[in-house]
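WP5 quarterly update. Target: Protein kinase domain-containing protein. Source organism: Phaeocystis antarctica. Length: 236 aa.
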Amino acid sequence: AGARPESEAYPVSGRFGVPGGASPASKRPCLRPTVTRGPSLALSLEVRTLLHQNRHALCCSAVDVQSGLKLAIKAFRRPKVFGDTEEWTTDQILRERRVAMELGHHRMVVPCVSSFQTWRAVCLVFEWQPHGDLFELLAQKGALTEPTARFYGACVLEALAHAHATGWCHRDLKPENVLLGSDGYAKLTDWGAACGVLERQRLPTYASTASYMSPEALRGNNDGVAQDWWAFGILL
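Structure tokens (predicted):
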């Protein structure tokens, strides 16, 4: 019968080859991978809801139709397709995947369970965290009680300490990157700006949040470990 044409290989639509929101169940497209990496996962995903998007990537919820498992997809615009000057490179995407997989066995880190690509996007698949992020919680409830703040702070502290001991710095710590899991723990996610603890790689301005950056990082004298602890202090 031969190979399927390129236009039929990815039965999805939207900005990154991923639909930008929910559609009727009978018409909801399947997002099927051509390349799957990481732990074995039968990926036949139905995209459900757009959660967040910016010029570099979008995040959406999805369900594996074979297992019923709910997951989160982070889809990056493929640099070779779009060629933007301030775009995540393939190396950066693969680094985020590598770090999330290396650290994901820790209870306070959101694990990346698989990855694949469509014709317009490189997609990372993460374990679903049902209770949103710390930013949403603060927006809804305002300042947290001291015991709650101590608990979530300890969760983030554990995640950062584990990352540093494993050889990685996060470099973009903020409430939006702290998710709240079904087990009640806060979990660190989004390792797109990560670097090795011994690296002195300058943090791209488009990959960070200025209000959480240390003075040294703003001047371009980057120390990832110090940047993490500075941001942790602001977070508290």
